[in-house]
Amino acid sequence: MDTNGNTYTILYSAVMVVVVAILLAVAATQLKPFQDANILIEKKQNILRSVNIVADAKQATELFNQTIKELIIVNSKGEKVEGDAFKVDLKVEHSKPVDQRKLPVYIAAMGDKGKVYIIPLRGNGLWGPIWGYVALSSDMNTIYGANFDHSGETPGLGAEINTEKFQKPFIGKTIFDKAGLFTSIVIAKIGEKADPSNSVDAISGGTITSKALQKMLYDDLSTYQEFFKTLKK
Amino acid sequence: MGEKEGIFSKKNLKLLTNPLSNANPITVLVLGICSALAVTAQLKPAVVMSLSVTIVTAFSNLIISFIRNTIPNRIRIIVQLVVVAALVILVDQVLKAFVYDVSKQLSVFVGLIITNCILMGRLEAFALGNKPWPSFLDGIGNGAGYGLVLVTIAFFRELFGSGSLWGYKIIPQEWYIANGGWYSNNGMMILPPMALIIVGVIIWIQRSKKPELIED
User: Fold this and answer.
1) ipTM over 0.90
2) Any domain includes A159
3) What residues contact residue B76 under an 8 Å CB cut-off, 6+ apart?
4) Range of A152's domain?
């Protein structure tokens, strides 16, 4: 048989593509449930890390259920909204106007330290999305812990936002100034004038990611201001 | 037809063992260097990467060898690419489903197995002209030869760079300066240039032991 003829070549490639496509489609659908479970577990691990609990994949669900006592959704006026807070997709919410957004809050019970409120964040880094969780102590001002991650920031530079070295300094910072004005957290370059109570050091060489993270903190935390006020009362 | 060859005849065994030393894809053929630099800061990703590459080389060799007489010569590179790409996507999906943390560490490098020169090299040079079983062995051999070097590099980099192996602390904690000792991890080990230096040292040792490998 002539394997170099045009008809043969075209038929051959068509059949090959169909066979491969079917194979991959079957594999992808079969493995999807496992992959989704892993993504959920990772989310739980990240949330736990924002309250300074390091859990491996096996313990994550159990520890999450023990620690996170309440999952609620609020709106920008600080009122509670019905829904499953864990399943809220921030990417979808961010495309809506602020007053229609669902704002999830995960409430953790941290023993003698009382209730801690975890706020999920999402923003745009240099190369792709960045996200994170900021845990606020019950004064709704002091940061109890923070965890950030990214999908493709530059290794060694912007990608450092998911390291402990970058995240630890957030602990103890405040997001309101002494007059009660919302300041969020400033990611300050060395030498930049910033109030040490609400700023942390930026990453050298990762300026765009640092600024993006600062913007993410400001934008997302500011939508919760009314909610913070109702809790402070 | 000649006499039937045994499954593990001397010739076939050579296909397995040759790539481990005299025809090692990394140290002798100098293929697949880029992933060798990228995923060897720790032992675990290096082992998973080696296994993934071995599976892909073995099965792509096997499949291509099976269909070698049907492939239209004009599109043979495309056919090879499709087979390799399909296998790599399968491996990537399986890793994401069952070893999620490792798959995150390997990130793009699993996908980049497609462009690993070892694969296309073996398909072109071996699988297109040999029967399925020897091709399969050749694939395993080359994957293992690649893996051997990767694991060796990762062993030294993790031990001296992070003081651990497979994530377990090996260097006693009291040795560290922070705990009043005298020891400190070598930060250079974690950076990619150190992988290149270790590859260089491995090549050096190998060639000084086997002078026949030295090119003019």
Assistant:
1) no
2) yes
3) B128
4) 67-232
Tally the domains of chain A. 1
Q: How far apart, in whole angstroms, are the C-alpha atoms of residue B33 and residue B121?
A: 14
User: Residues A166-183: pLDDT tens digits?
Assistant: 999 999 999 988 888 888
Does the beta-carbon distance from B70 to A13 stay under 8 Å? no
- Angle made by CA atoms A221, A223, A229, in degrees to the nearest 5: 85
Contacts of B93 in chain A (CB under 8 A): 27-28, 31, 35
Positive or negative, the Cα torsion across A85, A91, A92, A95? positive
Tokens matching residue A57: 């994949």
Contact A24 B71 (CB under 8 A): no
Tens of pLDDT, residues A41-91 = 989 999 999 988 888 888 888 888 888 888 889 888 888 888 888 888 888
A54 vs B: CB within 8 A: no
Strands A143-150 and A129-136, bridge-based pairing: antiparallel
Chain B neighbors of A23, CB-CB under 8 A: 86, 90
Stated pTM of the model? 0.76
Strands A199-201 and A186-188, how do they pair?
parallel
> What spatial distance separates the first Cα and last Cα of chain B, rounded to whole Å?
41
